[in-house]
Amino acid sequence: MEMSALTRSVVKRNHAIIAPDGYINSNVPGWTGCTVNVIINEQMGARLCQTLITLTDAGRLVGETQVSQIFFYVVQGRVQVAVGGETRTLGAGQYVYIPVGQSYEFTGPEASTQLLTFHKVYEPLAGHATPAVFFGERDYRKAPIYMNDEALRIQELLPNELGFDMAVNIFTYGIGGNLPMVETHIMEHGLMYLEGQAIYMLDQCWYPVKKGDSIWMAPYCQQWATAMGQEPSVYIYYKNVNRFPTVM
Ligand SMILES: NC(=O)N[C@H](N)C(=O)O
């Protein structure tokens, strides 16, 4: 292992950059034969949890969702999942959304399979059914242009329906693409870069980021990004959606 006293990771009150160089394993009951890096969690002030699971070929994830729904995305490798009466093999770019109160089992992974997860406490909405298990895959053809800018494309991975209180999207910035404005909004984000490099501005701080890095943005954390280099920059991100803004 290369030794270093340097890191690109930062953890602030309303945002964080988590680079892989600082990962330390967490043991999660029921998830065996794997390392689990808890990248974003309520311990840092977030209302989502984001983890990266790296499986050995003996890896097995057995559990039942309780109050939190979980979205599993295969970053690399292949694994079998049994959930909701179905068994499927998921490869890179494929995913499954598991609603609350659902048992699941992931088995038979290729060595070094990586799964990214997003977890959120589900908020039911009167008159709308709790979502069912949902499978899908990354597909650039299903990524419409964002805000009339040909360089930006977003694929929504979950149905755009009020029953869902979280969205997971893949945002592709073509070479030279950048967010058209500084965004300032109530929605929170957790994200991981799947490809390329970028410069991200978070609350007036500027960060170089690249494939493998994760970012947490609290509500109202100001955000802007531009792709860098000679390849597109792509991230998968979580966003809370579709619920009434609360006042205590
Ligand atoms: N930082 C971001 O990628 N924000 C997105 N445009 C979003 O809020 O969906």
TrEMBL record:
Keywords assigned by UniProt, alphabetized: Hydrolase
Record field: transmembrane: none
Pfam entry (one): Cupin_2
InterPro entries: Cupin_2 (IPR013096), RmlC-like_jellyroll (IPR014710), RmlC_Cupin_sf (IPR011051), UGHY (IPR017627), UGlyAH_cupin_C (IPR044697)
Residues annotated as domain Cupin type-2: 70-107
One of the record's GO molecular function terms: ureidoglycine aminohydrolase activity
Claim: ATP-binding is one of the keywords in the record: no
Listed name of the protein: (S)-ureidoglycine aminohydrolase
Protein source organism: Hymenobacter arizonensis
Lineage: Bacteria, Pseudomonadati, Bacteroidota, Cytophagia, Cytophagales
